[in-house]
Design a protein that fits this description.
single chain, mainly alpha, 1 helix, about 30% helix
């Protein structure tokens, strides 16, 4: 009934700038880091 999903699926955090806007550069860097480290996907 239950089939495990292989791999790691980290929860994606949302980094913010000091003015409260989303830091899209940090989002990109974090996503690339997850990819390089071999994560199977991202829970966003």
């Amino acid at each position: 009934m239950f089939k495990p999903i292989p791999g790691a699926y980290p929860v994606m955090i949302t980094p913010y700038n000091t003015d409260g806007t989303v830091d899209y550069g940090a989002v990109r860097a974090l996503t690339e880091w997850y990819y390089r480290e071999g994560c199977a996907g991202i829970f966003a």
